[in-house]
Write a structure and sequence with these properties.
CATH architecture of the largest domain: 2-Layer Sandwich
Number of strands: 7
Helix content: 25-40%
Shape: elongated
CATH topology of the largest domain: TolA/TonB C-terminal domain
Distance between the termini: 64 Å
Number of helices: 5
Largest sheet: 3 strands, antiparallel
Radius of gyration: 22 Å
């Protein structure tokens, strides 16, 4: 027969095993999530001196048509890098702007929607830069097609 002390030890052992399992899963997915969130102690320590709120800026994509998601990330063949705004540089803002981008069958950008933005004009800078990108046309069912893809634009000082 098990005493309460045995149950306590068993509970502690199960908690330790669960903690190790969670740590192993987090370690395995660490690289995947590092691309989404860029911790910046400077950004946390300083107040942002911009009046502009971080509001998603969306444009209508392809006249309201629902586009299929790209089977893989489209290949960029011409990239224009976004520029830092003075306000963002002075406030030491850095991180990712995550965009949903409509890629036309000729490889040009058809529409852009901000999923996650940054303050001080950086979301707008990311949109303006990505609108100038050119992609290799995405082939769906053997033909070039209009598709939607998620694009990450990194801003780092």
């Amino acid at each position: 027969m098990l005493s309460p002390l045995h149950f306590a030890r068993l509970g502690f052992l199960l908690a330790a095993i669960l903690a190790l399992a969670v740590a192993a899963v987090l370690f395995a997915y660490q690289e995947r999530f590092e691309n989404l969130i860029e911790p910046s102690p400077r950004r946390i320590a300083l107040p942002i001196a911009c009046d502009e709120p971080v509001v998603p800026r969306c444009m209508e994509m392809f006249g309201g048509r629902v586009l299929p998601r790209a089977p893989s990330t489209p290949i960029v063949i011409h990239r224009v890098e976004p520029e830092y705004t003075d306000a963002a540089r002075n406030s030491l803002v850095s991180g990712l702007v995550i965009l949903e981008v409509g890629v036309r069958r000729d490889g040009s950008v058809g529409g852009v929607c901000v999923v996650h933005g940054l303050p001080c004009g950086l979301s707008g800078q990311a949109i303006d830069a990505v609108k100038q990108w050119k992609f290799q046309p995405v082939v769906v069912a053997g033909k070039p097609a209009d598709v939607v893809s998620t694009i990450n634009v990194r801003f780092a000082l």
